[in-house]
Amino acid sequence: MNKRIINTTNTTNTTNTTNTTNNTNTTNNKEIINLNMNESILHPLTCNWFVNDTNDVCLTKYNYNNDTEKFNFYSNYKCNYKTNLNDYKKILYVPPVGISSDVILKIYKINSDNSLIDWIDNNIDKYNILTINRIINCWIINNIEILKDHNKILINIYNNLILKYCKSNIIKLIDDKKINLNNETKYFIEYWINKFNNEFNFNLLDDYLKYLNKKYI
């Protein structure tokens, strides 16, 4: 499957502008959360635990160097936006403001359906579900039009995610054959993708889990 990039990076209704100079993408985006010196938090970009042992830093103010593939934060810069934990939680599931989905995929060297599958297989027990989910969301964003007609790859991916991360009561229903997981996944993915628009709250896994819980629990 060839990668197709569409302009859907702004999935959380935030302002997102990226200027590119000398192979460096500098973000001019909404300020979500400020981290004081000697504090730590789950980082909204990497989903890894971030310890700030230098100056106060705004975690959504940074630039990305295409050559070194590294992020540089604006040192000693405090957010002018009062921390809103709901906004912060939202960007843990989709590409954070200021960084497009294709850049995220480039960081993880994912450029095809096969490389996506290989990355999931190699990392599903290594990374937390927030990171796994974000990478898949990025790939869907970049391929959304193609996936409207060709989404079989997603059925296998989400079947595996459900079996690994779903609640035990749902797993029991699947084991007892009271839920046909393959049919349910196929139905929901086709429904979900075909209702997509630019104002979409982009989190297929979360929506699918809610669907199963509402229907069967």
What does this structure look like?
It is a single chain. By secondary structure, the protein is α+β, with helices and mostly antiparallel strands. The protein folds into 2 domains: 16-104, no CATH class; 115-216, no CATH class. Helix content is 42%, strand content 17%. It contains 9 helices and 7 strands, in the order E-E-E-E-E-E-E-H-H-H-H-H-H-H-H-H. It has helices at residues 85-90, 101-107, 113-123, 129-142, 144-147, 152-165, 168-175, 181-194, 204-216, and strands at 16-21, 24-29, 34-35, 39-42, 49-52, 57-65, 70-75. Strands 1, 2, 3, 6 and 7 form a 5-stranded antiparallel sheet that branches. The protein has a two-stranded antiparallel sheet with strand order 4-5. A hairpin with a 4-residue loop joins strand 6 and strand 7 (70-75). Helix 2 crosses helix 4 and helix 6 crosses helix 8. The longest helix has 14 residues, at 129-142. The protein is globular and about 55 Å long. The relative contact order is 0.14. Residues 1-28 have low confidence and may be disordered.
Main beta sheet:
5 strands, antiparallel
How many β-strands, per DSSP? 7
Total domain modules:
2
* Helix proportion: 40-55%
What is the average of the pLDDT values? 75
Q: What order do the SSEs take from the amino end to the carboxyl end, as H and E?
A: EEEEEEEHHHHHHHHH
What is the 3D form? globular
Structure summarized in a few sentences:
With 217 residues, the chain is of the alpha+beta class. It has helices spanning 85-90, 101-107, 113-123, 129-142, 144-147, 152-165, 168-175, 181-194, 204-216; strands at 16-21, 24-29, 34-35, 39-42, 49-52, 57-65, 70-75.
